[in-house]
Amino acid sequence: MLNSKLKLIECPRDAMQGLHDFIPTEIKSNYINSLLKCGFDTIDFGSFVSPKAIPQMRDTAEVLSKLELNTSSKLLAIIANERGASEATSFEEINYLGYPFSVSEEFQKRNTNSTIIDSLALVERIQNTCLKSGKELVVYLSMGFGNPYGEEWNPEIVQKWSEILSSKYGIKILALSDTIGAANPEQVNDLYSKLIVQLPDVEFGAHFHTKPDAAKELIKAAYNSGCRRFDGAIKGFGGCPMAADDLTGNMPTEIMLDWFDENAIITGIDSILFKKAYLEANSVFPM
Fold it and tell me: Is 176 a member of any domain?
């Protein structure tokens, strides 16, 4: 795992989904097209979820039809149920389906209106759908670094569910999600160091929600612990609208790239095209 290739995932979907004012489809697709040129491993571009729950993503299929896919970047779409999985797998252009599995019972109910046990059964059905359609399922371990609801949380809980999802359901990509921005570097180091040794065949990712001034220390801790898959969003926009927090933003991609550059770590990102995409973000997000 320590020698594996660095994978950077840009998440415009996560950045956009909580915005109140609807972003026109053309603006969304133009922005994502600018990101597709940069060299990211994957673009988390949209979601097939209820438009009542996330109205901003109601045009995901239309956005997809406008994307310029002459690129090495792959596409990931978030789903929350079998209907969404069925819809997402019908599009040949989509490579990955992402499902938020919570280690918190309360957050699982808030996010997908189900219990953890029901969610686990859903993972099995979605995984079967993915295998039949040639897609890969990415499972996000929501509340992976803390719990704001008074429920028990400890690293062993995260390890337990990682083991179950990997060994019983064959999930090969697990992204630890700091849904509420609770992680600290010591905790990050502890979790990744243990999980990567415990489950060497799993690709562990880092989906941090964080304040900009804490970003580099979290990246450093995860990278030095063996993590090679990092999610980010330009300017740190976004956060989880289902977490009932103050929308702690996403990991700012530009800060993440700065840290890798400062440490002479090759990212594969075209700096000129990234700057263009960064400027394009001004047409999407409020200043």
Answer: yes
